[in-house]
Structures are given as C-alpha cells and as structure tokens.
Amino acid sequence: MGMAQTLKSKTAGTRKYRAAGKGAAKKPAARRALLLLNEKARRGSMPLNDILQRFEAGGLAVTVEPFSALPELARDITRLRESADCIVVCGGDGTVSSAAMAVMESGLPMGILPMGTANDLARTLGLPMDIMQAVDMIVGGYERRIDVGSVNGHAFFNVASIGLSTKLAQGLRPEIKRRWGRLGYAVAASRVLYKARPFTAWIREKGETVKVRTFQIAIGNGRHYGGGNVVEASAAIDDGHLDLYSLEMGNVWKLALMLRSFRSGTHGAWNEVRTARCVQFDVTTKLPQPINTDGEIVTATPATFRVHPEAIAVYAPPGTDDSP
Question: Which ranges in the chain are annotated with CATH 2.60.200.40?
C-alpha cells in the first residue's frame, strides 16, 4: 500500500498515531512529532506504516499532515506547532527549504526524511539516505544548529542561483524527476547549455560593487548542491557565511572541462570563475532574472542574500558539526 493510500485526505483532518497497550504500565509522555508529508516527492509514495511504527517504538507520538503544494507547509507548521515538540519534513531539498522560515519562527528542532531526488541538504548533514535509518537518527535526538540563507525573504539551505540552474529548474518537470531521478537532471542540463546566453549583473558586497557578464551567479549557504556538487571546498553549513561564485567564461561549453572541480569545490581556481565570501550580497541585473532556491523558483532580481547563523536546530548524526 502506498503512502498516499495510507492517509486520509486533509479535509478529513490531521491523523494522529500513538503507541497504545491495554493495561500496560504508564510510560513517560512521548515526544510529539509533526510529520509533514510531500506525497509528490520522488519517494513520497513509499509505505508509511513501517515508518510510523519505528517512530512509535522510539517514543515519538506522530501527527501526520500530508500536503500537495509547498505554500501549505508554512501554514501547517504555524497552525500545528503548539501541539508538537519537533517537526519532521518528508521530501526533497525544495520541500525542506519551503518549511524553513516557519520552523525558524516555531523554535522547534527539525528532522528530515530524505525522499527527494538530490537530497543535498541530507548529504551536507551526513544523514542516512535509508529512510528507516533516518527515522532512527531522529529518534536518537542529537541536535545540531545550522545556518539558513535567505533571498528576498525566502529561505534556502543549499544554494540560491541566477542563470543556468534557474533555467534547469524551470525545465525539470516533477514527472521527469520522479521517473528519471538524476538522469533527468543530466538531460535537462544539456538542453539548457545549448540555449545558454550570458547576462549582465552587478554584485555588491562589503560596500563595493562589481559589474559582471556571467552565465550564472550562485550563492551557497551549505556545502552540497546540484546532486553532490560542492559550493566551495571549505564551505560548511554552520560557518556563518555565504559563498558566491560567478561563471564569467566566453563559452559555456567550457563547463565540461570544469566538472571535476565543481564536484570538489575547487572551481574558484579557474580564471573564469569569480568567488567571494560574505554575510550579505546584493545582486541587480539589467532585466529581472528569476532566482532558484534549492530547486524552486521563488523570487527575482534585484535581490538581497543574507545568512542567518545557527538559525535552526536539526537532528543529525552525533559529531557531524562542522565549525570548531
């Protein structure tokens, strides 16, 4: 039975799952988890009963709230946060980022069940990709505080970008991600590169402005993005900074030669790649350019990018904190 089949519709009300046993000895009050389920995520249709039983065995009373559109997330968290001790988000990077602002406001710790395609935040945090192991880690309760990035008031954990990756996000339909996974990214990327054209932008940091002609501006908060690329070799999701790069080459196909450096975060060694590290960047463009945050188009230039240090507590493997 699929996950969507296990749940009642939202109009039927939120469902609560609690361990129960007639005549059993009284147990300490369970931690209350609000589980937000993206049924459209790549693994969003996997069976739910085993997941719930695993949570219950670990002492978590789970309230399941399914949603079908990302804007519902913040409303659900705001509406139900008083009845929860933690929030568990099931989905990919776009889903988790869409929940970030409401989670920040709630002050509750967040758990992640990585059910998306790339799951770059999970990779950055060292989370297990196996869902049951991820459940066990949430049950374990080790909390780690991490930074959140924002652009024009929209949160992101991994990277916000203008240019190539935005075109990729626009062309990568949900059904392609669900059916083909990372292969779908590769097919869509080849189409984007074929049509790519540079644009003019002004980047402002620390009171100084530089004019660039670029194919892409990316500003990272975390470490991984784009299915395992690295924002910058020394980047960490709790370092209190944003890392920027701008692709200023004459021919976009030169990216093929740079692929290995993007996987390791050493692309800044190329003359065609501008890099910078700061707590805030302001970017303007000749014409408004859409901005992609963790796979979702959320706003457009002109834009202000900021870091919010240690803004959210997440459940992570013990000992994975990056900063000293």
Answer: 154-309
Residue 175, exposed/middle/buried by CB under 10 A (0-12, 13-18, 19+)?
Answer: exposed
CATH code 3.40.50.10330 region(s) in the chain: 3-146
Q: What is the pTM of this model?
A: 0.83
pLDDT in tens, the chain (324 residues): 444 333 333 333 444 433 333 444 455 567 999 999 887 766 656 678 999 999 999 999 999 999 888 889 999 999 999 999 999 999 999 999 999 999 999 999 999 999 888 899 999 999 999 999 999 999 999 999 999 999 999 999 999 999 987 777 665 555 555 555 555 555 556 666 667 789 999 999 999 999 999 999 999 999 999 888 999 999 999 999 999 999 999 888 788 788 899 999 999 999 999 999 999 999 999 999 999 999 899 999 999 999 999 999 999 999 777 544
Domain 3-146 has CATH 3.60.21.10: no
**Class of the 154-309 domain?**
mainly beta
